[in-house]
Design brief:
434 residues, 4-stranded mixed β-sheet, 4-stranded antiparallel β-sheet, 44% helix
Length: 434
């Protein structure tokens, strides 16, 4: 078969057969199909989409492009949780330890910050000496002992996805829903999971700006999992304002520690408990969602989730005392306050603007090779719906260098909307899919 014919058919909206998808992905991975042809194919997919059969074939081909982790000899149901990316999203640091403390085996394969969104690996690496570069055997040993590990994607796991993602990033096709779905699911399915809980973000701080698109993505990923005999559920959650109060790396570790001690923000606690409960339910620890929610609540209140995270930090080379003594984490050298220009109600806090400002100060990266500053961050003092007075502090910027500080401050000032009337209340969890 000729690659140019497959590109033309996809351009015209035709469905490709599974063996034709295999030809494209295997040829691109091996170097037989050049970047320019795969770029044309990706753009064709961006504009014409993919059928469920095509997406499943693409996902399966990317899974088979590398090694799959065999966790079958480790007792228990293996459940991971994945977020599509947001601002202040430290849920993995909270929900995963709660689920593991309840008896779920959680092989957490996480990613890094890119653009305005944060990454779990960067947050954890704010803990001095914390290792995320676990080998597969180290991860397996830790899962046996602690039921939880945090690791990055190795070069052996779904290598076709890594190569394809780099090209998507360079060709403005990252936002394609079929390509997002297959990318996420190929990495997760290669990790030997039995079940997966998805947190699909929607709003200003998410890649999906519209709820209809977030729903399509959630349905597509749930469908991929089910066709491969995996239990998958998805929550569609609000990302119009930052999650919790802290945005950054070390500051989010601090807020995760507070949340695991049941003194965290209401929105963050609610979402983490629901994510943990669904992991517990899919992990067959509870017979119903009501029981799962009760178990998650107890694992939070009795401190076992907090102790689980401490155990995992120690197992991966970090100092677990950072959860009690925040001065052991990287700390910024300067603070700038952003104050309210007039009295009223906070009607909006643009999450993308907060994320962009935080990234500009050094907390994020434009390219995967960029370094991050673990100490910098933004801490909100208010949330949407609260009453504020003129001159009161809206948030504080914690910085280590004044480079980009003025730009970041201006972006943050523009992120807040003050109105005469309070906005309508909006639940953090908007929909459940699956």
């Amino acid at each position: 078969m000729r690659t140019v014919d497959l590109i033309q058919r996809k351009r015209d909206g035709e469905e490709l057969a599974p063996e034709e998808i295999v030809h494209l992905i295997e040829g691109f991975t091996s170097g037989q199909i050049p970047d320019y042809q795969m770029a044309a194919f990706l753009m064709a997919v961006y504009f014409t989409g993919m059928t469920d059969r095509e997406v499943s074939a693409l996902t399966d081909c990317m899974v088979r492009s590398g090694e799959t982790i065999d966790l079958s000899d480790i007792p228990g149901v293996k459940v991971d949780k994945h977020s599509t990316g947001g601002v202040g999203d430290k849920t993995s640091l909270i929900a995963a330890p709660i689920a593991a403390a309840a008896g779920v085996v959680v092989p957490m394969i996480s990613g890094r910050a890119l653009g305005h969104t944060g990454g779990t690996l960067d947050k954890l690496e704010a803990i001095p000496n914390f290792r995320t570069d676990l080998t597969v055997e180290e991860a397996r040993a830790q899962l046996r002992q602690h039921g939880l590990c945090f690791m990055g994607q190795t070069e052996e796991i779904a290598p076709a996805d890594g190569k394809l993602y780099s090209l998507r990033d360079a060709t403005a096709t990252v936002e394609s829903i079929p390509l997002i779905a297959s990318s996420i699911m190929s990495k997760k399915l290669a990790a030997g999971l039995d079940a997966l809980v998805l947190d699909v973000k929607v709003g200003s701080g998410a890649f999906m700006k519209k709820q209809v698109d977030a729903r399509r993505l959630a349905q597509m990923m749930v469908g991929i999992g089910r066709r491969m005999d995996k239990r998958v559920q998805a929550l569609i959650t609000d990302m119009n304002q930052p999650l919790g109060y802290a945005v950054g790396n070390a500051v989010e570790v601090m807020e995760a520690a507070q949340t695991l001690q049941n003194v965290g923000p209401t929105d963050l606690t609610r979402l983490c408990l629901e994510l943990a409960a669904r992991m517990i339910y899919l992990g067959k620890v509870a017979a119903s969602m009501e029981d799962a929610r009760d178990i998650a609540q107890r694992r939070l209140l009795d401190g076992s989730g907090y102790r689980k995270l401490k155990d995992v930090i120690a197992a991966q080379g970090g100092n677990p005392q950072v959860l009690d003594r925040f001065e052991l984490l990287p700390n910024a050298r300067g603070v700038r306050e952003i104050t309210c220009p007039r009295s009223g109600f906070v009607s909006a806090i643009d999450a993308e603007d907060i994320g962009r400002a935080c990234a500009a100060m050094g907390a994020g990266r434009d390219q995967q090779t960029d370094r991050v500053d673990p100490a910098v961050g933004i801490i909100l003092e208010i949330k949407v719906g609260e009453r504020v007075e003129a001159g009161s502090v809206l948030c504080r910027l914690y910085y280590t260098t004044e480079e980009n500080l003025e730009e970041a401050s201006q972006v943050v000032e523009g992120a807040f909307r003050i109105s005469a009337q309070p906005p309508e209340e909006r639940d953090i969890i908007l929909e459940v899919v699956g």
